Amino acid sequence: MNTLKKTTLLTVVCFLSLAFSGCGPRAVNLQPAEDAANPVCAYAMVAMPETLGGFEQRETTAQGTTAWGEPTVSVLKCGVSLPTAPVADPCASVNGIDWIIKPADEQMAERDEQSATGTWVAETFGRTPAIQITFDADQVSSSTLLAEIASAVGQIPQQQECTNIDDTLSDIETADSSA
């Protein structure tokens, strides 16, 4: 093959590789959480699944974050600051991970009647650093995504568990009956 053909072929290959590299999803621009540099976050982040609810994982611009879907259907941050216990929001345990789950819209969260649609936020309870995942409930169900990230989130040790009012009352009744 002569030099002109080699140069032309090389130019075409370079052009195509540049063209295709720009066609994929761009990185999701995020701000890191306050404690994103916590070394424990790294254990959870490297264990995150490549797909979540059928959506591909995306590159992000901030440490301790990841996202899934094009367009983005869920964003996860490690190292978020959460209020201390007790909390008034409902707590649910999914595959051994306790989560506080609420609508992202505070006005919707305050309504007596809530819908399982729209944007929701789930935050780990009893784990430091805490993880927060914001997701579009119209695209992926909370039970699916929380189950699929449970193993990764489990890399962060649990210090506290969710309790409900029935557990608290039964502890009081047990203490009263033994007196």
Q: What is the H/E string? A: HHEEEEEEHEEHH
Distance between the termini: 96 Å
Uncertain spans, ≥5 residues at pLDDT below 50? Answer: 3-22
Main sheet summary? 8 strands, antiparallel
Brief summary:
The protein has 179 residues and is of the alpha+beta class. The chain has helices at residues 3-21, 39-46, 106-110, 142-153, 165-177, and strands spanning 51-52, 55-58, 65-68, 74-80, 91-94, 97-103, 119-124, 130-136.
Describe the structure in your own words:
- The chain has 179 residues and is α+β, with helices and mostly antiparallel strands.
- The protein is 32% helix and 23% strand.
- It has helices at residues 3-21, 39-46, 106-110, 142-153, 165-177; strands spanning 51-52, 55-58, 65-68, 74-80, 91-94, 97-103, 119-124, 130-136.
- The chain has an eight-stranded antiparallel beta sheet with strand order 1-2-3-4-8-7-6-5.
- It is globular, with a radius of gyration of 22 Å.
List keywords for this structure.
179 residues, alpha+beta, eight-stranded antiparallel beta sheet, 5 helices, 8 strands, 32% helix, disordered N terminus
Architecture blueprint of SSEs:
Layout: H1 3-21, H2 39-46, E1 51-52, E2 55-58, E3 65-68, E4 74-80, E5 91-94, E6 97-103, H3 106-110, E7 119-124, E8 130-136, H4 142-153, H5 165-177
Antiparallel strand pairs: 1-2, 2-3, 3-4, 4-8, 5-6, 6-7, 7-8
